[in-house]
Amino acid sequence: MATMAECRSALDRLSDNLAGADGDVRSAASLDRSLSCHIKDLDVTFTGRLAGGRIQVLETVEGPPAEKAEIRLAMTGDDLVALVNGELNFAKAWGSGRVRLEAGFRDLLKLRSLL
Question: Which residues have a Cβ under 8 Å from the Cβ of 113 and sit 6 or more positions away?
Answer without folding.
Answer: 23, 24, 25, 27, 28
